[in-house]
Amino acid sequence: MPDRTNAPKAAITSRLVMHQWMLPEHANAHGNVHGGVILRMVDEAGAICAMRHARRPCVTIAIDSMTFRQPVHLGELLICTASVTWVGRSSIEVGVDVSSEDPITGAVSHTNSAFVVYVALDDDGRPQPATPLLLTTDEERAIFAAGAARQKHRIERR
User: Fold this and answer.
1) Domains of the chain, start order
2) What is the pTM of this model?
3) Nearest CA to 38 among 82, 8, 80?
4) Is the pLDDT of residue 1 over 80?
């Protein structure tokens, strides 16, 4: 039975690392991994992380801009590391870092990062209060404050 007490939870309890081997069906016209494939994996990793945190269904409401620093090549592992960075009333911001790994050499490259915002849903599919984030260190408080500032900026842009 999922814990739905809404007691604050530490980010580490919902952290997710997802790996996917990039194969020919993931290619764009240039022979690298298609950006849409990477975006989909970022959203999936973020959504799983948000659902682990809320122990509720969560839907995507925003993806902050994503800059692709370098291509991901076929044959590499695409690695998405997702962690909850900020929680509002019903919104959950998840930071997703993306890396590629050559499984033969072990070389790892950071390719991009994004912040994705999800909303926790109740049994009727309406927004519900999200599980608060437990902050115990100065670093966690700083990450949370940066997330609050990003959310304020998102709201101002509407």
Assistant:
1) 9-157 (3.10.129.10)
2) 0.93
3) 80
4) no
